[in-house]
Specification:
It is a single chain. The chain is of the alpha/beta class and 877 residues long. The chain has 4 domains: 224 residues, Orthogonal Bundle (Arp2/3 complex 21 kDa subunit ARPC3), CATH 1.10.1760; 167 residues, 2-Layer Sandwich (Beta-Lactamase), CATH 3.30.450.40; 152 residues, 2-Layer Sandwich (Alpha-Beta Plaits), CATH 3.30.70; 270 residues, EAL domain (TIM Barrel, Alpha-Beta Barrel), CATH 3.20.20. The radius of gyration is 46 Å and the shape is elongated.
Amino acid sequence: MSDSPGQVSEAESPESTGSPQRVEEHQRSFRWFSSGLLAVGILFSVFVSAMVPGDFGSDLYWTAPLLAVGFLLAERFTIHVDVNRVGWTVSFTEIPLVIGLLIAPFEVVLIAHLLAGMSMLMGTLISRRAYSHAVYNAGVMCLEVAVPFAMVAVLGQLLEGVGPSWLPVMLGALFSPLISMLLALAAMRVLGGEVRFSGAVRMAAYILAVGLLNTSVGLVGFELADRAPWGWALLVFLCLAVAAFYRAYSGLLRERRDLEALSDVSLTVARSGQHVAGRPAGERSIAVADSRDEWQSITDRIRDQLNATRVVLHLRLDPDGDRFSVVSGEALPVGALPKGELRDDPLLQLPGTQVRYFRAIDAVEEIRSALQSRGAYEALVVPLRGAHQLLGAVEVHDRISRWRGFGQADIRLLRTLASHLATTMDNRRLLGRLRHDAYHDPLTGLLNRPGFREAADARIQPGRQASILRLDLDVLSTVSDALGHAWSDRMVVAAGGRIRDVLGADAPLARLESGSFAVLVLDRSDEELAELAELLLTEVVRPYPVERLTVEASAVVGYACLDEEPTEEESPADALLQQADVAMRAARTGDAGVRRYAPSMGQIFLRRFQLVTQFRQALDTGQVEVHFQPKIALRSRAVVGVEALVRWVHPEFGRLDPDEFVPAVEATGLVDALTSFVMERALIEVRGWLDRGLRISAAVNLSVRNLADENFPERVGEALSRHEVPPQLLTFELTESGVMSDPERALPVLRRLHALGVVLAVDDFGTGYSSLAYLRQLPVDEVKIDKSFVFGMGSDLSDMAVVRSIIELGHSLGLVVVAEGVEEDAVRDQLVEMGCDIAQGYLISRPLPLDRFEAWLQARTVRVRGLYDETVLTLVS
């Protein structure tokens, strides 16, 4: 038994993806190693010849040709199993070796083995590398015979009279393939390959198992031929049976691996993503570059399956694109592949779909030159033909094998691989074309709406400024009516070209419908977007030459910016398109030709209408909740109250911001229902806290419409009595602008509420009138500093001055001062130093639903005894 690493060929060197200089260094080292190995083999053979003198009688010379024929047949009738680029060659060389050890002199067996080996190598002695491997193989063959003879001589003397006489012969024959294996591992190491101990152990076990079978066959066969009549016939049948078993197993294994390879190659091509066919020229080179890794893995798989030194895959993925080549295995010499079309290469002039097999030894001069330029001495070449055109070609160079080149099984496999690869590439090209048609406008070649949505969503990344501009071109219907649709189509194409010239080739540009276009712009400031929109408008409205006429066109541009991150369920492109469309419609109805989207435009009113009509049902079905945000006394850190804030989780729109639906509700008669709902929930919780010995007030926001309701104070008094809550634990917060919008109606209501004993607070103080006269005429008890000033305290001295002034003004009027929007420790400390009374903000807590607020109280506060023996919750650091 032998294996191909036992006799190395050039393709057994490790995969070389490094520089050609590194490959040459490994080859040079291997040549020195081979020469040294041959010298050792010759010297050791001379030594064994002297140690084991043979009988050179004429009656023994007949064994030489018979043994040579035996070695030749053993090497010829081999079973080749290639696994993971390791080529196993199961042969029967142990059988003639055993017979030679039993009956022939050492010199006769050595000469027979060398003759058989050299005759097998003659067909491959073409390149410089092949000669170095032939030298290596000659050295190995010398040792494969010399070592067993030396072992038989030594063990025969040591075991004389002990055990059977054939035992030294068996041990010597078994040691021969082990010598081949060890030398092969050494050669792989010299060639730069990785040698693992576990792999070497498995290889040795495999060699011993198969070698033991072959050696046993040889010994049994010799005994049968020597002692039994017609024993040689039984020996022939036995050898044929073993060979048939090996070949059947090898065939099954190869068929399974071939099927796996076909499946892997087809699936890799099919799953490798969107094809570059039909892409714009600016994107084609990027797509090809992105797919090189995928084609590299396919090429590697083909090389492994065919056990080749090198595979070159030539491809043209796009009919209008350039050819590129992917190489797996040893690097190609510089300038090996001619540039231009595939048909310009003599090796690739391939009619039909058949696999062509070329060898430098018997090829025509043109083919021999092409092989020599590639550094190969044999090649399999097959075209990749699609339904209507040549897609590429596959070259396979120099099979890894101890003796033989590519065979019929390799040709059949490559033909099938090429057929599967070409079919899959053709299908992928067709799918690419269908995908292109599905995502592009047939008239202009630009993206259509689905294509634009996909391209925009792919490019909009968190943290990047993204904007979409919508442009609508007019007068198309007029042109169509006068000259026909063909001329209006030409105007659309021309307009798309003008937009592309302004934007460049990389920006996603779409024709949505008729004369409407959309473009995605990234990383532009508001000023740059406004300038770009004006430039697009100027270019698009330039006169269009139509027939012998010059058509004046008009257009409008609307654009929108992604100001906040969209939810996971929301497409940012859809959101921006909708907003840009609203801005475009606003530009059409207004005086300016360019408009930027604002939340007050168009669709916001429809959504507000939907929210208003659904709000009453939301109150009844539990969609609307009340959250609580705590307020603490800054000096004592005691929890003195909460602000009750409304929240709405809409079944269709999800969690709604209060700024979105509260103004809409306030504009209708439902604001009374909202205020009553929040007040009822707040009083229920205040009553519950009182029952637990906790005195925590609740603040409810009032609308200007509440202040216009003369019956509102009576409803508040009734609710306080019903829940048995002291009026001092209920606070109403009102804005300056809300009161001053109609002070004649608001002030009487405020005075009646103040007479009930409830606390009145001015919210967002500092953003409205904020005058001393204004505060003096309002019956208020608290003033809340607007959070915009509190936010800026840490970085803006003017904001800090405003906050200090408000605190001093409030205290001078005997008012409690509350700072909202406290989010930093430094701001809290500054407020304490300024004498602010109460703080509210994210530093303390966000607004929380009731259950989470109760958990916050338990986790963040402790109960202490107050000045008047009441229980107080104090914030824990």
